[in-house]
Amino acid sequence: MYARIIVDITHEKLDRVFEYSIPSDLEGMLKVGTEVLVPFGRGNKETRGYIVGFSKICEFDPEKVKSISGICEDGIDITARLVALAAWMKEHYGGTMIQALKTVLPIKKKERVKEKCYVRRMVSKEEGERYLEQFLGQHQQARARLMAALLDDEVIAYELLKRKLNITKTVVDALKERGLLTIETEQEFRNPIRAIALEQKGIPLIYTEEQQNAIHCFCRDYEAGIKGTYLVHGVTGSGKTEVYIEMIRKVVEDGRQAIVLIPEIALTYQTVMRFYRKFGERVSILNSRMSAGERFDQMERAKKGELDVMIGPRSALFTPFSALGLIVIDEEHEGTYKSEQTPRYHARETAEARAALEGASVVLGSATPSLESYYRAEKGEYKLLTLQNRATRQKLPEAEIVDLREELRKGNRSILSERLHELMEDRLRRGEQIILFLNRRGYAGFLACRSCGYVVKCPHCDVSLSSHRNGKLVCHYCGYETPMIHVCPECGSEHIGAFRAGTQQIEELVKREFPEAQVLRMDMDTTKTKDGHEKVLSAFANEEADILIGTQMIVKGHDFPKVTLVGILAADMSLYTDDYRAGERTFQLLVQAAGRAGRGELAGNVVIQTYSPEHYSIVDAAKQDYEQFYKEEMKYRSLMGYPPAEQLMAVLLSSEDELLLERGCRYLKEYMQMLLKKQKKEEIRMELIGPSSPYVGKVNDVYRRIIYIKSETEAALIEVKDQTEAYIEINEGYRKIRIQFDLNPMGVF
After folding, report:
1. Interior CA angle at 630 toward 628 and 635, to 5°?
2. Do 175 and 225 sit in the same domain of this protein?
3. Model's pTM, two decimal places?
């Protein structure tokens, strides 16, 4: 018997399967997905690899085939279905098989098992009492305390004895040697849901007719064995989470498991609380803020069947459930569901691929679905479930658009318009809460000289540095920091300053304008710690603050009943970026932000401040009219040939050698043009754009170029990708150039 193995050599542009013989001592111990040690190369260096299959016949000379050295002691096995999913990802998104295998493996190695020790009494109660008298008579107080405790409780936690009774290891060992007690251990899984465990189960909910219809539709299909993809399009506050819970309950009752994907770690706290009330300790979470030990334990619990529901961002999709029945993707329109590493997979498409392998269903949910999802629902590929009303029957908040150009004409140069300022005073007087949203972190934007126009840039990246309140200029791409400058290095002028307001500056302004108000700020800078998100959100939920200022992480899925006013400070900040999705992103952000207002018994108001009050993204967002926005945006997408009207593939090339990169781009373009000519003969319309410099042409001293290819079909693009990868592999000139493929990219590079 021979094993087919993918060897872990990611630094090489080598992507092939190697055959190894299975030694007799490992027969019956290996399976698809096992991580093994193998001799590799001329020097037979011991290297890790993953088994992807077995064969009775060797394709090479059996005498030259090397043997597997052993199983990795600290290795993590990949389930056979996840190996199959990795193969699909490699084929669909490019990259190597080892990169795909590592992607479907959220935990890279085994962690130290956490054990809990117990002390158990091994003698009868009568005998124990005799020993207690003996210890007291001999003035052995510690032994007497230990035996007295064991007479009260036959089994006691070792930690409790040390902490409460001041019993040392020496005393325990002495009684153990005499056969009076024994020490037992059991594996203790680290629980990442400490605070939530204290929550009480919620009262039964009364579902609206729309919610009932959505739940019934899913359950009817599930009972009939129909496994498809559903798009739950519900306005903010329509009770989408409650619908997910009932769908999951149906699957769990059938003995299967569910995965719930959320776009932000910040959403974990509130989401898990809701699920915990329904499913108790059979719910867990998985995210990057957890320790390696906590993540390892959750994977082990999932493998052992101790969990029914896993909640987390994109990587939670690869939870090793043995009987997966449902994958829910909440806020499915979010860009965070797209990976920025090779393979550049999208969680939505990958979830559908995994569901097909597992015989599971997929549920997508959003108040502002991605155009791709809604397009597929219109074509009948997804089943559309609509929730047009809020679950509480509360009206959607009243939204008004404030033209910032008019504010300037009035002489108001503050970031807060007169109308927003007036409403903030009113809400504070009433004891209600306010959210101010600005999609920008930090103290200010870029630094520029008013005399010569010089912009302070990162020396390693082709981007401007952002100023922060700590007196530092920071690059948000590579992390480069330098002290604040007060004199222009180009012309020596002192007229150098920051442009654009950031969250820190807004916080200072609000505190000056409303000194009596308690203010919280939530952005990447204030949530760096492990529990940073939870601390800010729980403080605001407990009404410890009146105003919450933040970036887009505060407008996604949070439910604060006392919030009656949302101020969107610069609605068009994301509108005029060089990205074909700019209009869609702006609309989604505004609707999501507006949806945080008026979710309780009190009515809500939204103030949208903008320099472009006539733009359809902003007008439709104020009306919360998704259908109208979809029609307008699809006209633009169809005219320009952008997804979902057509398919798009980006080829990103990067290298430290700029001249080599330019030469590599030129040759690659020529080869791709030849491929496109072949496609045209088959009457498949395709278009090649570039190579050109991306939005950021250099990051951390690495130069970048981009080539775009458009096509009517995804299959045609994948064929071009496959042939291009083969061309790159056989040409040594590309060894020093990193090449990534991105199918339907979520943004510009």
Report:
1. 105
2. no
3. 0.79
